[in-house]
């Protein structure tokens, strides 16, 4: 008895229902499967008020924030819940925002505290100053007060001045005139002044998708949680995924809609859409029933 259980049986079903074995032998069914998977991903979020379903969930393993960023998984679709773990082991949920929101409210991309917000941004891993470190000047001679500020190719404004890691107060501890830094009191021999610039990301030839945070992390905190992932694309080497295993008839219907588009057959599109839509709704409703069947309505106050 023919059933759809994997990539081979799905491509065979597409061929059988279309009565077009040539689409399978020529590999055109891969177009239909790719389009069908994208359609199901998009339609689930649209039908489920911007949320995925349990079958789409994947764990984000505990990952240290490095240089203010953390990697975005290659199969990322959307967040479910991402938390930050502080140095004492306490866990706090992060609120997702847009990258522009983070930059507007936390423009100083230097260590500030435990993150409360997270966003996804696309930027290269190259940064200046490197690894978010200040630019150190030469060790002071006894009583030295004047330093020439080194020219910076990025033209960045100076945020802070420190001496041996201790931040100085503008006008009280130092003044800057043009490219000259003058300390109010002479430094002790061997003390090292440093200039802190804003952290920026320099566009590279191959941009990477990264999580950014607000405030900018002041330690290598760990993030973890759950996200909605793309189902692996079915192929000869990737023979199964959650779609073909848990909702084979939904996936088949989506493939047939894509076949109608491929063959420019409006009647086929309409016929299979009428079968696809209730199957999609049933999938989402089953997920809602599993999540909420044992819960009771609660009203939050305040």
What does this protein look like?
- The chain is an alpha+beta fold.
- It has 3 domains: 7-54 and 229-289, no CATH class; 66-128 and 201-220, no CATH class; 135-196, no CATH class.
- Helix content is 30%, strand content 25%.
- The protein has 7 helices and 17 strands.
- The protein has helices at 7-18, 21-25, 29-47, 99-105, 242-246, 248-262, 266-292, and strands at residues 57-64, 70-71, 76-85, 91-93, 95-96, 117-123, 127-128, 135-136, 146-148, 160-163, 166-167, 174-177, 180-183, 193-196, 200-201, 208-214, 222-229.
- The strands form 5 sheets. Strands 1-17-3-4 form a 4-stranded antiparallel β-sheet, with no helix packed on it. Strands 2-16-6-5 form a 4-stranded mixed β-sheet. Strands 8-14-10-11 form a 4-stranded antiparallel β-sheet, with no helix packed on it.
- Helix 1 (7-18) crosses helix 6, helix 3 (29-47) crosses helix 6 and helix 6 packs antiparallel against helix 7.
- It starts with 6 loop residues before the first helix and ends in a 10-residue tail after the last helix.
- The relative contact order is 0.22.
């Amino acid at each position: 008895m023919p059933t759809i259980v994997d990539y081979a049986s799905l491509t065979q079903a597409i061929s059988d229902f279309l009565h077009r074995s040539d689409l399978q032998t020529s590999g055109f069914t891969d177009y239909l499967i790719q389009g069908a998977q994208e359609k199901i991903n998009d339609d689930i979020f649209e039908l489920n008020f911007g949320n995925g379903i349990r079958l789409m969930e994947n764990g984000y393993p505990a990952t240290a924030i490095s240089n203010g960023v953390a990697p975005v998984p290659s199969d990322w679709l959307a967040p479910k819940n991402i938390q930050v773990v502080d140095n004492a082991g306490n866990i706090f949920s992060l609120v997702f925002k847009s990258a522009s929101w983070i930059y507007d409210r936390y423009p100083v991309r230097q260590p500030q505290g435990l993150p409360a917000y997270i966003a996804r941004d696309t930027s290269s891993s190259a940064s200046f100053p490197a690894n978010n470190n200040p630019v150190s000047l030469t060790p002071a001679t006894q009583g030295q007060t004047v330093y020439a500020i080194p020219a910076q190719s990025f033209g960045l404004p100076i945020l802070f001045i420190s001496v041996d890691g201790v931040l100085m107060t503008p006008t009280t501890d130092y003044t800057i005139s043009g490219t000259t830094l003058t300390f109010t009191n002479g430094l002790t021999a061997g003390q090292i002044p440093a200039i802190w610039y804003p952290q920026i990301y320099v566009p590279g030839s191959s941009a990477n998708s990264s999580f950014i945070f607000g405030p900018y992390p002041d330690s290598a905190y760990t993030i973890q949680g759950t996200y909605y992932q793309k189902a692996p694309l079915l192929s000869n080497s990737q023979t199964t995924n959650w779609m073909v295993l848990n909702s084979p008839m939904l996936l088949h219907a989506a493939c047939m809609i894509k076949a109608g588009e491929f063959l420019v057959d409006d009647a086929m599109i309409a016929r299979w859409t009428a079968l696809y839509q209730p199957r999609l709704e049933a999938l989402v409703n089953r997920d809602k029933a599993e999540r909420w069947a044992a819960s009771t309505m609660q009203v939050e106050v305040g």
